[in-house]
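Q: Got one fold?
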Amino acid sequence: MSDAETLAALIDGFAQNHPGATHPRSLQAMTAAYLGPDPISRVLLAERDGSAIGFGAWRKTYDPYWSCFGGEVMALYVEPPSRGHGVALSLVAALAAEIKAYGGCFLQANYGDTLSPLYERLVQGRDERACHLSTEAFETIASASSNSPREILRHWRKAGQQFK
């Protein structure tokens, strides 16, 4: 299976409970959007034993209030059998590290009830379910990305207590 086909299969799982679940998705358009020469979003895959089990996608954004660049998480998905093992947390940390490597200083995301327990452990959610991981908390989480999920969670909790 090609990288594009692997990502397309994960996106199908991601869209399963979305109103657009049955909407046809073009492999060609998805390939151009994520894997082409001018991608609109960057994608990271989570793998276990050589198989893709999840992904995170982000795009560059700018915060006019704080006058700095960051990253907006467009999608975060882990296949159901792999949930509960720190994969999503590892993906968030890897996304933060990549955003930082691209010159960003924050991560923001819009999310639903499924992801609220993950994001809202550290960040302040608003009614529209948008979150913002920035400043010292962003640095703390991004620097923990090479650690195990358990260590990332320790950093996450420490940052949450220190910066709330």
Notes: The chain has one domain: 39-163.
